[in-house]
Amino acid sequence: MYSGKAGLHKNSHFLAAHATASRWQEAADACLAGLGHIPAEANVGFLYATDAFAGVLPEIFAYLKERTAVAHWVGTVGTGICGNGREYHDEPAISLLIGSFSEEHFRILPPLTDKPDAFVRAERAWLARHDHHFGILHGDPREMQVPKLVGELGEAVRGGFLVGGLTSSRNGYPQIADGMVEGALSGILFDVDVPVATALTQSCAPFGGKHIITQCQRNIAIRLDDRPALDVFREEVGEVLARNLERAAQTIGVALPVRGSDTGDYLVRNLMGVDENNNLLAIGEMLSAGQPLQFCRRDPASAEADMRRMLRALKARAPRPKGGVYYSCVGRGPNLFGAESGELRIIQEELGDLPLTGFYCNGEISHNRLYGYTGVLTLFL
Fold this sequence. Notes:
Strand order of the largest sheet: 1-2-7-3-4-11-12
Structural class: alpha+beta
Number of helices: 11
Distance between the termini: 38 Å
Number of domains: 2
Largest sheet: 7 strands, mixed
Strand content: 35-45%
Helix content: 25-40%
Shape: globular
């Protein structure tokens, strides 16, 4: 039986709906009812389902494509998904956004498992028309080459700016790109005639001083500022957390400044573990000597403040958005903003009743890089 309610949001260019139900067809039908009349020119759909439906995503996709007559679809699954003002975590649910775009202004990105050369050759004429392109991508977190592929694709498509997220799932990692696909990366690219505004918000606030990695091996920090790395960490986190380093590693992360950023941007990576015998830190990223590093703390108050800052800055740039997609880390949502869809309610409070979809990711893509513990919002203008 249908066990929840559908949400729906509409304007002249986009339709969105989301619903929960124990059976996929009931959730899909609730979304279709929420969408209402779908105009004939609607031709692109974004489809996200919670991983409870991962095994039946092919059926959901085929059903919605037939019922809506929307020709092009992209999407994936997540442990959580969202619509405007609503999050679904650990329950069966579907979220949709349907839009209308000129066929000349977008291309579906087929699954990439290697360099994007074949796609670039096939779409050479289309890519040559404009100097800037915007992409929304879905990636497989099991594929180690994903961060490299994101960067290579961004360079290959002339002025590429890529956003999106990596599938989060306990039941398979399906993707949709005009069909059911598997691979490191897939999605959709738009040319500059599809106007967007996008921004990123951080969950973690840096603290203490900046340090330089003076000795490392792969992802192991051996010395910071020419001192044992673990000694520096102990001093930064304080006496209480230093007594329980395993607990400290659960709340403290590492901020790696983005080289060349003029906004102080940084990538957050997990602190994977400590070696007290050898005074070492294991970090969830390959390191290099001379690289700057700062410790950061996951903090709900800082996360909300930064999110509202981001939303207000976006609203100033895009006061009347037509639709949106939101990709947030699985470590955010109820973990930082509490129950009752706290994170998505903030978006609704700041931007109003906006047709929106998205999912909770195993890594977020923004500006051709893979982030962690962030939220990435894109608005169609």
